[in-house]
Design goal:
Among the domains are: 35 residues, no CATH class; 41 residues. Helix content is 61%, strand content 0%. By secondary structure, the protein is mainly alpha-helical. It starts with a helix and ends in a 14-residue tail after the last helix. The radius of gyration is 38 Å and the shape is elongated.
Length: 143
């Protein structure tokens, strides 16, 4: 029983020693390290993911984010988490908005085509009902 207590004491001491060394090495005021900056971070591989049509990061969407982390022993899936439910609702709302806007666009295009056809028919009707000159086009007038 003495061995586990000794190992706990050793791990606590090692942890304290590592924390002190880490704190000393990370302290920027002492080292003056210029490689640390405060600009926005870019995830590794972000450009690669975007070029191939994936999410910018692995935690935005995809099987690792959307599918459950575990399942029951009999094969039932785990209940969805709050974040999964929220993301699903956001996607459904976005899909509804896309459908609404696309139907509005289709209706607008059909109305525009109808107006164009009506304008052409009206222009043609004006050309037909225009007064014609009595002079024949072959005769020339002497002036």
């Amino acid at each position: 029983m003495a061995a586990p207590i000794m190992s706990i004491r050793c791990t606590v001491q090692v942890t304290r020693l590592l924390c002190v060394r880490l704190r000393n090495s990370v302290d920027l005021s002492r080292t003056g390290n210029r490689s640390v900056h405060s600009s926005t971070l870019r995830c590794a591989g972000q450009d690669w993911r975007v070029r191939r049509g994936f999410a910018r990061s692995g935690s935005e969407y995809g099987p690792l984010t959307d599918l459950p982390d575990w399942s029951f022993a009999d094969g039932r899936p785990a209940p969805p988490w709050k974040g999964q439910i929220r993301r699903k609702e956001e996607r459904e709302a976005l899909a509804r908005r896309v459908v609404l806007l696309s139907t509005e666009m289709d209706q607008g295009m059909t109305n525009w085509h109808k107006k164009q056809q009506e304008m052409k028919a009206e222009q043609l009707q004006k050309e037909i009902s225009k007064l014609k000159s009595k002079a024949s086009p072959n005769k020339t007038t002497n002036t």
